[in-house]
Amino acid sequence: ADPKLGIVYDAGGKFDKSFNQSAFEGASRFKKETNINFIEVQASSDTQAEQMLRGLARKNLDLIASIGFAQTQAVQKVAKEFPKVHFVLIDGVAQGANVNSVTFKEEEGSYLVGVAAAMASKSKKLGFVGGIDIPLIRAFACGYEQGAKATYPKVEVIQNMVGTTAAAWNDPAKGGELARSQFERGVDVVFAVAGGSGLGTLQTAKEKGKLGIGVDSNQNHLYPGSILTSMVKRVDNAIYDSFMQMKNGTWKAGVTAKGLKEGGVDWALDENNRKLITPEIEKRVLGARKDIIDGKVKVIDYRAGNHCPV
Amino acid sequence: MTFADLHLDSVLVSTVRNAPVLIFAAMAGLFAERSGVIDIGLEGKILASAFVSAAVAFATQNPWYGVAAGMAVSAALAMLQAYVAITQKGNQLVGGIAINIAMSGLTFVLAQFFFQQGGRTPDLGQARLFDVVLPGSAAVEHIPFLGWLYAHLIGGHSVLVYLAFALVPLVHWVIYHSRFGLRLRACGENPHAADAAGVNVERQRYLAMLVAGVLCSFSGAYLAIVQSGFFLRDMSAGAGYLALTAMVFGNWRPVYTFLGCLMFGFFGAVQIQIEGVELPVVGRIPGSLIQMVPYVVTVIVLAGLMAKSVAPKALGTPFVKSR
Amino acid sequence: MNNHDLPRWATAFVLPILNLLSAMLVAAGVIYLLGESPTESLGILLHSAILNPEGLGYTLFYASSFVFTGLSVSIAMQAGLFNIGSEGQMYFGGLGLTLAMLAFDSTLPTWALIPAAIAGAALFGALWACVPGYLQAKRGSHIVVTTIMFNFICASLMNFIIVKYLIPAGEQNTASRAFSDAAAMPLLNQWFPVLGETPLNISFLIALVALVIYGVVVSRSAWGFKLRTVGQNPHAAHYAGIRLSKMIITVMLISGALAGLGSVNSILGSTHYLSLNFVGGAGFIGIAIALMGRQHPLGILLSAVLFGALIQGGFDLSLEKPNIPTETFIFIQGLIILFCGAMEYFYAPAIIAVLKRKKG
Amino acid sequence: MQPAVEFRAISKQFGAVQANADVSFSIAKGSIHGLVGENGAGKSTLMSILYGYYRADSGQILLDGQAQSIRTSQEAIRLGIGMVHQHFMLVENMTVLDNVMLGAEGGFKLAAQRATVEAQLRAICTRYRLDVDPLATIAELSVGAQQRVEILKQIYRSANILILDEPTAVLTAQETASLFDILRLFKEQGKTIILITHKLQEILDITDTVTVMRGGRVIGAVPTAGTTKEELANMMVGRPIENNLPRAPYHPGAPVLTVENLQLQDAQHVQLLADIGFTLRAGEIVAIAGVSGNGQSELMEILAGMRLPTTGKLTYLGQELPYGRRHDADGLPLAFRELGIAHVPEDRLRDGVVKSFSVMHNTILGYQDKLKNRWGLFDFKAIAARCAGLMKKFDVRPANGDLRIGLLSGGNQQKVVIAREVLAQPKLMLVGQPTRGVDIGTIESIHTQLLALRDAGVAILLVSVELEEVRALADRILVMCGGRITGELKIEEFDTTRIGLLMGGMHKS
Ligand SMILES: Nc1ncnc2c1ncn2[C@@H]1O[C@H](COP(=O)(O)OP(=O)(O)OP(=O)(O)O)[C@@H](O)[C@H]1O
Ligand SMILES: Nc1ncnc2c1ncn2[C@@H]1O[C@H](COP(=O)(O)OP(=O)(O)OP(=O)(O)O)[C@@H](O)[C@H]1O
Ligand SMILES: [Mg+2]
Ligand SMILES: [Mg+2]
């Protein structure tokens, strides 16, 4: 029989232009290919996450995907109550014999776009626009800076955060304003890791004739010619794979950290940014990519010690 | 850190660019509240007009149609608020908050229904308002200071920015030197006196709300068509409440309210500049703490310098002909 | 016509029901336009929020927090103060509670932890309200402005504190560590197993007690009389020898403490840890609840339950009906506030006309 | 001749109250028509109907023989009706000029009009000898000056029918006299004037005919020439009114309050009170006479603890009043009340009552801490009983403690306030303008209460601008002018001219 599947998005919702949306896309792809449906709900608070998870578990679902680290505790608790139901948690690590925790090495992907940014920049001043000042966002920033500095040690990275409330993910005006102010300080490439606010950043980059870097999904198509690349975080693949494994009976519990090697993160090169990525840039980025995969270069995860080496 | 690190030029330009959202909404609130109707529903009207103006500008590929449509919707919401506050004599705070909450939900549902992009409208592309380039900007560009002043601080903004700044003297004149303003103030201060003097209080308040609705729509249009180039759910991000704050801060007077808006704009811009910068004495302030700068400044200014705020006396009380 | 001419049963029951129906009618129209059946949707909503005991448990769980924020806004409103800061006060109250739990949850037993949590939450909530209160009382700084500012300031400060000090090493979640099992509010499902796995806990009972105390204090006590006098006529309050500034500060402290208590339900009742932006708008909903409930204890309770029901029912509905996004319920909340809170007398003329025709 | 105004069977009901019942009478053109009646008789309601403020439930109004339906004040104004309301209808934070222009601006742009209107106003002020500065802000003006602004407004608009609802309630004798001069001028110009007042002497002085109302009905309409005060009073109240109330002989007891060298400066260092000194003894009523705005209000506020003096020694029953080391008067009135000082504030709507509270709750105001039990709660049964007793004793009408006090007539509100303060059994009673806007029947009862209090040994300090009232109540009279006491008289020396001179600041050495 077909597996019964479900997704619980976190407070950002399935259209957050970030990992929730990516998860939704992966599940949709699975649905299209297999014609197997899935149930989806959004949990606006941690309490609701638990409620939703339990609600879905009671429906005897086979696999429930929980998107976002905010659901960690809820997954842990509900997984214990329903040992027959399988869970996959994105961006967090939960204990349990029936839980597969998937985290991503955002720092590795960010490193690559940092390399590309440092090379593409003429002023050697790079910008970073984050949503809220939390460890996850700092991991992006830190990887980005490592990549940039490894390429061009004197490069300067200016960082700004949009805000401190949930509104910080949906404030394109502020996202744009931060980019503008960075441009006025000489920045010419900006990496936007701020959900919907980041769209304002990319839009401003296009308007001002500067370069933007997208995040999570491949955002190159948004403003072809002015988005240098995107740091893709393949939550979609993670979900798609989980669902597939469930269908094929190969699903396994455990903890997976997906980096470049595992195809969890990457940079995006397609027809939309082909012209921006010169052969030198491409060569350098691919080189760095290989070094990381081979373990020659070790990108430090901000979250490991709560500090950034550069 | 040196003075140059402050990037004062960038801060000033940023202030000019950020203030219009607040100025339009605060001036809107001023009209409503000077007539005696509390307008806590600015946020909802901004959001509604942002959505409608982006959607219409996209559909017609003409930003002006977008602005006009936003105006119509924001005015219609203001009329609903007026009907609640004036005709139904309902609680004005409740009416305003209801509009805020309802619009937060409805704009998302509609945006999703029409565009299927997760509560976002498509990018407006060319259907945005143009920036005004003052004649001869290119020529003076390289002259130190003056070039910057002319081409970047004064010139180079969207038409709506100029409208916002032009609005301030205009509102001042209307409030203090026109018949409309005289009656408006009388209705907000002592509607019974206005009524006894032959002023139709309800009509005056409806008119005030209409003006408020129209002015507020520019705020939304500016956010969507000028600043962002698309609509995004909940993109007003508290601008309506901040505008209301600027108005109270300015003691319900146009020029002081305007200064309040500039202050928010200015400290918002300063906050961007000092994020991550090594400051004298305090050193590097963590990003999340930097975010509170504009708000802390407001509280300090309010507590330290300003005299007691005096709201229009009849603010919030429906006009009932009885003692 | 005059609204005061209406009989009591009409203002107390007929009008609210008609208003609720109107809001539901508009909502039904929207649901219909979204391509779903309104009657079926309403059925699901009702079943999931009220009829199904577990759903009711959740409804009341959400309502418990709302009662506290509603009370927080209401009590300040009695003194003529519009406290928009309950959101921040509840958030900061959560910090107080968390600090108390982090310090004692491994050493103290449950019966001591709960009072400690309540004290911590109330203390920190009050602390966050005291500056705006003081500035209003002594400097005349407008409370609406200062409390809005303090919401923003609180968000920044909490962001800083949680990220910098509270996230346990190696954790992703932007939250403090989970407290020990001792630090949990007793759940009501111990006594009422029918409630199933709901986080409904004794906070609900505390909320009910708080409502009763609020009602008695406001309308039957000398202090409440002073409070209302300050709100209705500050000149007369001064004449009566009521200390205006002390009253303003005191009531803001109480208001902040009540908002802070809202965090006990959501943290100790359910998540057992403090997370970023955990308040999620409960403070702002408190404003709507206070206004809709007319600052009356029963009104506050009913509005809180109504909002809880919408949140709870909305989930299940959006689960069953994928065409109806959760945001639809935000819109419906707005409609209900509009019809029941702001246009409460919309149908009064019609009812008066009907009554007159019957008499005449 | 066609009457200017004719009321035909006007009825108006507010809830259970029949404010006007079948009111019919007419007013001759070019006459001054008096309208008298007890508080709540329905005078203001009737005039509000004429001014389009309320709509009558039934009945008709004819102007110059034409039936008119006046639905709004705009329509009334267009028909040439002007009204000076019982409670001023002025926008306090605007100038006199703007207040006059409001509703009659003459164009969208004010700037051009302002200059011409200002010139016109100055001309009117000279012509009618009105002392008003068109550029002054209303809030800065004394009550008398505000009254003049109301008159100015009507002259400017040249109303043909002018309604004046208790215009003299807050005026001094001189101000009243100059108002009447203006009214006579109007009359010469052929205007019709309707004057409502509780002061029967004024009716006799200026009106041509007078209509008496009671309980919403017209009791009688008589030519002024053929009537007397006693007859009018009798028609109004339904019983004769005693002018000279009996009182015990003057035997003052020990000093209750001694004021020495009291000074008061405001934040701008303007001297509001200077060198005030007097002694008040048990069992006497000392009245402070004077034109309002000469510091009486401030003196009362200081004595009630609502304001701090700048310097001065105030001794109450042998101990100094507790102003010391306070930087504001927050909460001080309570301490004073506990010492046995009761206070009937002169602005009862602002200070004395909470309009939205019931009568019963208003009887608690100021004594909330005395009436609570040890749990801090009220025993509403006892309080309701207390309120009922108090309403009965002081004849508050309607005797319903659950009614919002805002719905009571001014006189009845005042009775509630006085009753509340008397009930506290004070040793010192401060009374400000106790009968402002109050009908003669109620004045009589309020005066009786105050005299009874004096006879019981309470020291009473009375501030009143009504010399009639001062004469009826006082044992001694202090006259204030410009923040100083300009003279002191015993009641036997009562002499209107001499008091008038002292009120004008003229010392008689
Ligand atoms: N808007 C109203 N709502 C309810 N009752 C009212 C209203 N206005 C007046 N009344 C009642 O109608 C009656 C007549 O009031 P009105 O003000 O006309 O009396 P009045 O003769 O002018 O009294 P006064 O001498 O005190 O001015 C009173 O009993 C009053 O309480
Ligand atoms: N319509 C009214 N009915 C009753 N009292 C009124 C009315 N209008 C004003 N008052 C009050 O009457 C009092 C007299 O004010 P006024 O300014 O003329 O002189 P004052 O009180 O003697 O002295 P000061 O102006 O220094 O306070 C004020 O307290 C005012 O608030
Ligand atoms: Mg009257
Ligand atoms: Mg009166």
UniProtKB/TrEMBL annotation, chain B:
Keywords: Cell membrane, Membrane, Transmembrane, Transmembrane helix. InterPro entries: ABC_transp_permease. The keyword Cell membrane applies. It holds the Pfam family BPD_transp_2. It comes from the Bacteria. It is a multi-pass membrane protein. One of its GO terms (cellular component) is plasma membrane. One of its GO terms (molecular function) is transmembrane transporter activity. It is found in: Cell membrane. The chain crosses the membrane at residues 12-32, 44-61, 67-86, 93-115, 154-175, 206-225, 231-249, 256-274, 289-307. This is ABC transporter permease. The lineage of its organism: Bacteria, Pseudomonadati, Pseudomonadota, Betaproteobacteria, Burkholderiales.
TrEMBL record, chain C:
The keyword Cell membrane applies. InterPro entries: ABC_transp_permease. One of its GO terms (cellular component) is plasma membrane. Keywords: Cell membrane, Membrane, Transmembrane, Transmembrane helix. GO terms for molecular function: transmembrane transporter activity. It is a multi-pass membrane protein. The chain crosses the membrane at residues 12-35, 55-76, 88-104, 110-131, 143-167, 202-223, 244-267, 273-291, 298-315, 330-355. PANTHER family: ABC TRANSPORTER, PERMEASE PROTEIN, GUANOSINE ABC TRANSPORTER PERMEASE PROTEIN NUPP. This is ABC transporter permease. It comes from Rugamonas fusca. The lineage of its organism: Bacteria, Pseudomonadati, Pseudomonadota, Betaproteobacteria, Burkholderiales.
Automatic annotation (TrEMBL), chain D:
It comes from the Bacteria. Pfam families: ABC_tran. Keywords: ATP-binding, Cell inner membrane, Cell membrane, Membrane, Nucleotide-binding, Repeat, Sugar transport, Translocase, Transport. It is a peripheral membrane protein. The keyword Membrane applies. Signal peptide: none annotated. It is found in: Cell membrane. This is ABC transporter ATP-binding protein.
